[in-house]
């Protein structure tokens, strides 16, 4: 259990811990205010003489590989989450560590999933000290109940890269699940029985970790073509029967929502991009794989066709709906961060216009620019948004951890950031006076689209002007909020949160944006 | 659940709960002889509305005169008007609730509905599915129908009636005409008693086969309106669903000045005829044209049935266009995605509107100049053509098209 910690108020007015897991923190000081200094971290220098000349880095099993990497108490082990809820490699590694008998590891996944809930037993047994990475489902509850020994640290995909390259997190051993690899360690996600498309989330781990192990169920003779992970960064290769459950890695088909309310939201978003003049030749957009986002892409595709408009690039989370855009000649390229369904995996493997990207190219705030700010419009979800357009994606309104941040924070840099949300869920209003957990500052959120109307951030008079004369229902956010509260029978009670921090939310620059408090 | 009799009532339940249930709740009431009201609540919105739900359940029961009972509530995010409906239903089923009904706060009534208003689309909402009610009006249909008849299981008729009553009071349906489909008589008379005080705009009378059914409903509505001081018009739309009903179409259309439209139910009609219902509708052509003729003969609207295949938008469009060509002015819809397709089908084309506008302009010009003959260019326009153009322009104006 963490002891009572000292708190400081940050620029967003949120109380945040001054120390997290023994490391001093910088409270958030505003968008674009924090100036990083110093040099990036680097892994130790290695020598060819210590690696086999024939390039064969195979070891018989993961336990041997972890021992060879010098695994000991208190180390940081990392994994990527491209295999999503189907992943078997992360638990395989953690269980091997348990068999070796080490304690107090920090597990540093790019995200965790409900199928990894047995990590709770490893925390109770003392093998894992704490998790830094998104937690939801049972792991999220374990953290919010205050049962984890250390504090959770929630970072965006870009923020995770930033933390690794800036040296805030030092990875001792990266264990990389590889749908295809060769004995030298070149690896890729686009082929093999466990194909998952891009492996971008594992790239930083492969470049900055002291030791890198690639685990594959599809070993091919050198060279593995294409490779997204370079074998020159890899220490050992381990072959296993299966790195994951293909049925849970990608969905067979992604389905557009049939909910009329959600379809209406999706149509509003597409019409907004059209009527605001954002949908024009050479434009770009990003949308995820949620039900509303998929339907939005479908509506926009029809509008683009009708208007004869072509995008220069679209960013995924790719699905068959983005692939259709590419195949219909409605975009030149897909720049793909993660690949969600079979059509998209097929496309990334076979179509040179569908490219895997990484959090470095797309999201890292401590770099010489990133794609996120070059995208004209992005469509995102949220659990809550407040009257000042601040957004929450990490907690339920009752304070329990619900989601990771994913690329959400990074995407806020887009030219026009749109939150597409129902105005209430299960009687719980989505527009609130103040978000439970601040995940995105309101100055970066431009438009909130609900089934009852569209609210434009007053900080964006240009957008208000652009849609003047459109038939879209543009309304003040307070107006939508008041209507929903009337429907729901008054404002919801504010749940009582505890006074002990159990996790922090990092901003894209590594400063601390908000705190998740113990619940229950 | 087994039922146990006590001196004051029996164990009873109402509503729905479970992982797949949204915006509803389940209430179980066990009457007791003493001990007051003991309410237990499980709710997915407990941290936000738990206290408010507890207080509302207690208030509804106290108002109904329930003094001693063990009440168990499983809530799935129900809105307040649903909560009070379910509690009232459970209390009544338990043989309690003779006291004052606790009705949800009543929204201001929308303006009265005109007899010949636009009725291109009416969206069916099953009377026991509250999750569909609250956003129904957002999808832009000309009307919504709260259905008490075929979409409601026989054992849920009482629950639906109470829920629909509360819905009419508490849900804002915006510009949509508020229709209710009652059950066949005599059950339909119980429906009327509950809903007429809430002034729906129109009542659909199912399986109408005789003008007497219409006059009976009309008389009952008249009495209930007087007793409850409802002065809004409440229009009638008989549904003809059998060979006999079609034979009496004209008499039914004439049965009351409150009949605003005739409509047809093709599922029952084709069953009655022993023919297969197709997406072309050849088998019902006679019935539909006969109904249109009977309606037009008394100057009321003819409204078509529903198109059942929600996935087939091309089929729906063809059906709607054909329907309009036959003289129908609208049809039913069973999913909101059908609404824009139906509206497009029942909206005259811009070319039709432009031509009609020219004819109307020529007619007005002739009127002003005191000419008996209307002409457009070198062509003389016959009076019925002028009449049709006037009607089309008036309709197009209602649709915001002219």
Describe this structure in words.
The complex is a heterodimer of chains A (520) and B (402). Chain A is α/β, with parallel strands linked by helices and 520 residues long. Chain A has 15 helices and 29 strands. In chain A, the strands form 8 sheets. Chain A has an 8-stranded mixed sheet. A 7-stranded parallel sheet of chain A has the order 5-14-13-10-6-7-8. A 3-stranded mixed sheet of chain A has the order 9-28-29, with no helix packed on it. In chain A, helix 1 crosses helix 2 and helix 8 packs across helix 9. The radius of gyration of chain A is 23 Å and the shape is globular. Chain A starts with 6 loop residues before the first strand and ends with a strand. Chain B has 402 residues and is an alpha/beta fold. The N terminus of chain B is likely disordered. At the A-B interface, helix 8 of A face helix 1 of B.
Salient structural properties:
A: 520 residues; alpha/beta; Glutaconate Coenzyme A-transferase; 29 strands; B: 402 residues; Ribosomal Protein S5, domain 2; TIM Barrel; 3 domains; 14 strands; 41% helix
List the SSEs and their pairings.
The complex is a heterodimer of chains A (about 525) and B (about 400).
Chain A: E1 7-9, E2 15-17, E3 19-20, E4 23-24, E5 58-59, H1 62-68, E6 76-79, H2 89-100, E7 105-109, H3 119-124, E8 128-131, H4 137-144, E9 152-154, H5 157-165, E10 173-178, E11 180-181, E12 187-188, H6 203-208, E13 211-216, E14 236-239, H7 246-249, H8 260-275, E15 283-287, H9 291-307, E16 311-318, H10 320-327, E17 331-339, H11 342-350, E18 354-356, H12 359-362, E19 377-380, E20 384-386, E21 391-392, H13 408-411, E22 416-420, E23 424-425, E24 428-429, E25 431-432, E26 447-450, E27 453-456, H14 461-466, H15 477-487, E28 501-506, E29 512-517
Parallel strand pairs in A: 5-14, 6-7, 6-10, 7-8, 9-28, 10-13, 13-14, 15-16, 15-19, 16-17, 17-18, 19-22, 20-25, 22-26
Antiparallel strand pairs in A: 1-2, 3-4, 11-12, 20-21, 23-24, 26-27, 28-29
Helix pairs in contact in A: 1-2, 8-9
Chain B: E1 12-15, E2 25-31, E3 37-43, H1 46-64, E4 69-75, H2 80-93, E5 121-126, E6 143-147, H3 157-170, E7 177-181, H4 187-195, E8 202-205, H5 211-228, E9 235-240, H6 243-247, H7 249-253, E10 261-264, H8 266-273, H9 285-297, E11 301-306, H10 313-326, E12 330-333, H11 338-346, H12 350-368, E13 374-376, E14 379-381, H13 383-398
Parallel strand pairs in B: 3-4, 5-6, 5-12, 6-7, 7-8, 8-9, 9-10, 10-11, 11-12
Antiparallel strand pairs in B: 1-2, 2-4, 13-14
Helix pairs in contact in B: 1-2, 2-3, 4-5, 10-11, 12-13
């Amino acid at each position: 259990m963490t002891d009572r910690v000292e708190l400081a108020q940050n620029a967003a007015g949120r109380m945040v811990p001054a120390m997290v897991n023994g490391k001093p923190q910088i409270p958030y000081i505003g968008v674009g205010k924090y100036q990083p200094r110093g040099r990036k971290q680097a892994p130790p220098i290695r020598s060819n003489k210590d690696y086999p000349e024939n390039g064969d880095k195979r070891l018989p099993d993961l336990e041997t590989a972890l021992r060879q990497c010098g695994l000991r108490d208190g180390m940081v082990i990392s994994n990527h989450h491209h295999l999503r809820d189907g992943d078997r490699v992360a638990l395989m590694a953690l269980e091997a560590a348990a068999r070796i008998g080490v304690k107090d590891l920090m597990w540093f996944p790019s995200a965790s999933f409900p199928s990894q809930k047995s990590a709770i037993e490893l925390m109770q047994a003392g093998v894992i000290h704490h998790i830094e990475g998104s937690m939801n489902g049972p792991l999220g509850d374990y953290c919010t109940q205050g049962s984890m020994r250390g504090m959770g640290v929630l970072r965006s995909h870009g923020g995770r890269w930033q933390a690794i390259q800036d040296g805030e997190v030092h990875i001792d051993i990266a264990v990389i699940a590889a749908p295809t690899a060769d004995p030298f360690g070149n690896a890729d996600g686009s082929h093999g029985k466990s194909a998952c498309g891009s492996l971008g989330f594992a790239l930083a781990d492969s470049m900055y970790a002291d030791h890198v192990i690639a685990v594959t169920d599809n070993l091919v003779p050198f060279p593995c073509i294409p490779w997204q992970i370079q074998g020159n960064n890899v220490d050992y290769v381990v072959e296993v029967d299966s790195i994951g459950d293909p049925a849970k890695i990608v969905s067979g088909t992604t389905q557009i929502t049939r909910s009329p309310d959600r379809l209406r939201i999706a149509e509003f978003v597409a019409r907004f991009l059209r009527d605001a003049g954002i949908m024009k030749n050479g434009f770009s957009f990003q949308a995820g794989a949620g039900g509303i986002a998929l339907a939005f892409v479908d509506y926009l595709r029809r509008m683009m066709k009708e208007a004869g408009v072509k995008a220069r690039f679209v960013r995924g989370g790719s699905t068959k709906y983005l692939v259709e855009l590419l195949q219909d000649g409605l975009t030149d390229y897909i720049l793909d961060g993660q690949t969600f369904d079979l059509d998209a995996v097929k496309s990334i493997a076979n179509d040179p216009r569908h490219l895997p990207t990484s959090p470095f190219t797309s999201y890292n705030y401590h770099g010489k620019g990133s794609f996120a700010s070059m995208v004209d419009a992005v469509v995102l979800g949220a659990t809550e948004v407040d009257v000042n357009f601040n957004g929450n994606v990490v907690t339920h309104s009752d304070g329990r951890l619900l989601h990771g941040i994913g690329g959400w924070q990074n995407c806020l840099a887009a030219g026009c950031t749109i939150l597409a949300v129902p105005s209430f869920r299960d009687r719980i209003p989505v527009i609130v006076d103040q978000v439970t957990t601040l995940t995105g500052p309101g100055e970066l959120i431009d438009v909130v689209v609900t089934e009852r109307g569209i609210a434009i951030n007053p900080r964006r008079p240009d957008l208000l002007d652009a849609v003047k004369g459109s038939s879209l229902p543009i309304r003040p956010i307070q107006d939508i909020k008041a209507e929903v509260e009337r429907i729901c029978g008054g404002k919801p009670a504010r749940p009582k949160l505890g006074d002990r921090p159990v996790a922090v939310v990092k901003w894209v620059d590594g400063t601390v944006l908000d705190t998740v408090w113990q619940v229950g | 659940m087994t039922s146990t009799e006590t001196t004051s009532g029996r164990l009873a339940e109402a509503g729905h709960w479970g992982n797949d249930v949204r915006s509803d709740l389940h209430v179980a009431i066990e009457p007791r002889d003493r001990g007051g009201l003991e309410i237990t609540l499980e709710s997915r919105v407990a941290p936000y509305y738990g206290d408010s739900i507890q207080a509302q359940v207690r208030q509804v029961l106290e108002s109904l005169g329930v003094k001693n009972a063990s009440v168990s509530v499983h809530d799935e995010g129900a809105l307040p008007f649903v909560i009070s409906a379910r509690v009232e239903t459970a209390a009544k089923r338990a043989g309690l609730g003779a006291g004052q009904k606790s009705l949800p706060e009543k929204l201001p009534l929308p303006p009265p509905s005109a007899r010949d208003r636009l009725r291109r689309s009416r969206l069916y909402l099953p009377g026991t599915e509250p999750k569909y009610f609250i956003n129904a009006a957002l999808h832009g249909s000309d009307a919504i129908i709260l259905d008490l008849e075929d979409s409601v299981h026989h054992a849920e008729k009482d629950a639906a009636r109470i829920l629909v009553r509360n819905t009419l009071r508490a849900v804002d349906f915006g510009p949509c005409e508020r229709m209710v489909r009652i059950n066949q008589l005599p059950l339909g008379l119980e429906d009327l008693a509950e809903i007429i005080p809430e002034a729906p705009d129109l009542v659909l009378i199912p399986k109408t086969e005789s003008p007497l059914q219409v006059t009976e409903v009309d008389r009952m509505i008249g009495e209930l309106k007087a007793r409850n001081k409802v002065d809004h018009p409440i229009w009638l739309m008989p549904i003809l669903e059998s060979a006999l009903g079609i034979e009496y179409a004209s008499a039914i259309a004439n049965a009351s000045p409150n009949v605003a439209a005739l409509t047809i139910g093709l599922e029952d009609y084709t069953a009655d005829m022993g023919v297969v219902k197709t997406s072309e509708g050849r088998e019902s052509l006679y019935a539909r044209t006969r109904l249109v003729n009977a309606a037009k003969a008394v100057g009321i609207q003819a409204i078509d049935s529903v198109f059942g295949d929600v996935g087939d938008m091309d089929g729906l469009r063809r059906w709607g266009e054909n329907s309009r060509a036959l003289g129908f002015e609208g049809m039913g819809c069973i999913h909101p995605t059908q609404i824009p397709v139906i509206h497009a089908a029942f909206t005259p084309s811009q070319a039709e509107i432009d031509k009609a506008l020219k004819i109307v302009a020529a007619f007005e010009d002739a009127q002003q100049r005191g000419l008996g003959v209307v002409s457009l260019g070198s062509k003389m326009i016959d009076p019925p053509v002028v009449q049709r153009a006037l009607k089309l322009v008036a309709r197009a104006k209602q649709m915001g098209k002219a």
